[in-house]
Structure formats: structure tokens, C-alpha cells
Amino acid sequence: MVDARGLACPMPVVLAKKELAKSDSFVIMVDNETAKQNVTRFGQNNGCTVTCREVDEDYELTLERK
Amino acid sequence: MKNQKVLTGITGLVIGAIAVLLVVLGNPANMGFCIACFIRDTAGALKLHTAGVVQYVRPEVIGLVLGSTILAVAKKEFQAKAGSNPLLRFVLGFFVMVGALMFLGCPLRMMLRIGGGDLNAIVGLVGFVAGIGLGIVCLNKGFSLGRAYKVQPLEGAAFPVIQVVLLVLLVAVPSLLAFSAEGPGSMKAPIAAALCAGLVVGALCQRTRFCTVAGIRDTVMFKDTTLLIGFVAVIVACVVGNLIVGKFNLGFEGQPVAHNDAVWNFLGMVLVGLGSALLGGCPLRQLILTGEGNVDSAVTVLGLTVGAAFCHNFGLASSAKGATANGKIAVIVGLVVVAVIAVCNICYNKKKAEAK
């Protein structure tokens, strides 16, 4: 799991990009709406299905390459 | 995703149109908005510097922050956060201002200057893109200012509250403040119009995450053009608006509140682009984030403010006559300092990752 909580733009997407280069499926945690939208958009732009689950005050995003 | 692009495009068009309108209502030419110039003017009004021609509490800045706050609270996105290398952010903010006042404008004003036909701003744009390019190299090599942590809501609310205090001072006790009698600081749209313009743009930018740096950075790094659409839309709206009101003036010479020293326009914006890329957002974006409770961005804005005061107290800021010797030295120092910060940060993060 990639923990991108507390990281400001664009770090969550940078971490997601690095992880996607290594694996076809992973989970990334973010803690704000902007990061959630940015990572979701990155995933969708790169051929992934993105599912989001709210965990307490954070978001758990699962990116899976189609 | 398509909706985001449409909304960002509309935001860009609205920003460009409002910027032209603010000039018609009294703001300096090609300066409907300029985050650097307006923070500098506010610093002057508070007597942090005494350059008589650039002193005024700009209601646009107050509106931008409060517009963002109102929408962030309404959308339950207000989140008080702090602790992501605040002092480094302050220093980066300081030097972003040094670069912006070398060029005479923040990235947003650079776009408005292009939209007004000022070709010197194209030179600035090339520098800005080059600076962001250097920032992207740093980000790819592991640059990160680190995590922020949740703090008490009062801390996140402090900066928006300060804006309310500034507005009260401006309206109720202006005698406490310094106001320009001549020069750009004396040219202003009516308070209500400027405040409303700020509120609308602040709310739209909060919603769309509009950022002049991210438009270019995301296109290069992630092939995501969402925010670039907003960037282009501002310029398009500005060109059309200026043509309609007869303020489009194509050329390098005699441009309003600008100089045509290409090398220093370029280098000033390299510093702005690099510093902003490392900060994660342009000066406008930093203001919007303060409205959402981001204390690190508030510290960055304080860095911009102190930077502006230094620029005028020590003769670093350019004028229509051109760049100053002190300003040129400050930009070079700024580029070196920002490079040192970037290299030290990358080395530190690498060591930390290896230790894990």
C-alpha cells in the first residue's frame, strides 16, 4: 500500500505513477479531496479502473490496470 | 473527467473576462489580477515597505482567500493542516516574489499580459516553462517537502480571519493604512467590485484546483491537460476582452507596468516557475489553499509578503525603466538558494528511503 496521506499536490500522483510502473494493481491512501480527484484522474487516464473507499477521514483508492 | 475539463475551461474564461473588467473599472493595465503585485501593494499599505507608488490593500486578494474558504466549508473540504517544511516554504515563497517582481508579475499576470499583447510576457512564459521543467526534474528525482499533519481548526482559520480583519481596516479605518496617491497602487477598481471579483474567482479556483504551474506540470509529467485548458482559456478570454474594450496593444515597447529586458524577464520567471513547482503550486494556488485551511500555504504567502517588502526596501523590484542591479543579484542568489534547497532535499529523501 502507498501512503500518500499528508502529502501535497503533486506528490500523491507522483507516487501513484511510480507504483503503476512496478505493479498492475495497488492501493493508495490519500487524505483530501484534491488528491483523491488527481489520483483518480491519473488512473483513468492510464487505463486503470479506480475504486474509492472512505476510511475514517481518509480515502483508500484501488487502481487496477484494465 | 470531461466535466472537470469543461469547468476548468469556464473558470479560465471567467478569470480572463473578470480581469479585463477590473482594468476597465480602474485597476492598472494588464493587472486585473496579479497575486505578486497585489500582495506587494498590501504589504505597502501595512507599511512593511514605503514605496509610495505601490501601497493599497487589494480587496481581490481578500476575496480570493474568502471565496475559497466559503466554498471549502460548504463542500466540507476545509481541513486545517500544517507541518510540511514551513520555513523552507517561506524561503521559496520569498524568492518566488523576488523573481515575480523582476518580471513584474506573477504567472497569472504573465497570462494577462500575453492577453493584452505584451510580447515581453511571452519571454516570461518561456522562462516560466523552463523553471517548471527544472522543478519536474527535481520532483522525478525525489524532491518532496514532506507530510503535513492535521492541526486544530483555529490554526487553519487564522489566515482567512486575517483577511476579514484587513477588509474591516480597509473599509472602516483606512486612515491606519498607507495608500498610493500616484502610480499603480493608486489605480484600483471600486472595493465592492474588486472583492466580488476575488470571491467569484476564489470559489471557482477552489472548485477546479486551478493552478498556472499545474497546467504545465501535469501536462508534462502525467499527460493530463485538464488544468492547461484553464491556462489557455484565461489568455483567450483576455485577448477577446481586450480587443472588445480597445486595450489590446501588440508589441514589446511601451507596455504598461512592464520592461523589455528579455534576459531578466526570462530569468525572473525561471525562478518563479522553479520555486512554484517545488512549492506544488503558483502564488494564486497558494492563496486558494490558505482559504482551505492549509497553514503551510499561509506561511508561503507570508514568505511572498516579506519578499515583496524586501524587494522594495532594498531596490530589488524592477520598474518600467528596467531591472535594477540589486534585483539581478537577488535573482541569481534566489536561483542558487532554490537549487541548494532542491539538492539537499533530494539527498535527504534518498538517504531516508535507503534507511527504510
Summarize the structure.
With 66 residues, chain A is an alpha+beta fold. Chain A contains two helices and four strands. In chain A, 38% of the residues lie in helices and 36% in strands.
Written overview of the protein:
The complex is a heterodimer of chains A (66) and B (356). Chain A is of the alpha+beta class and 66 residues long. Helix content of chain A is 38%, strand content 36%. Chain A has 2 helices and 4 strands, in the order βαβαββ. In chain A, helix 1 (11-22) packs parallel to helix 2 (33-45). Chain A is globular. Chain B is mostly helical and 356 residues long. Helices cover 69% and strands 1% of the residues of chain B. Chain B has helices at 2-24, 35-45, 59-74, 86-103, 107-115, 120-140, 153-172, 191-208, 212-222, 226-245, 262-279, 283-291, 295-313, 325-355, and strands spanning 81-82, 149-150. The model of chain B has no long low-confidence stretch (mean pLDDT 97). The chains are: A alpha+beta (66), B mainly alpha (356).
Summing up helix and strand content along with how strands pair, one would put the structural category of chain B as: mainly alpha
Unreliable segments of chain B (pLDDT under 50, ≥5 consecutive)? none
The assigned structural class of chain A equals alpha+beta
Strand order of the largest sheet of chain B: 1-2
Uncertain parts of chain A: none
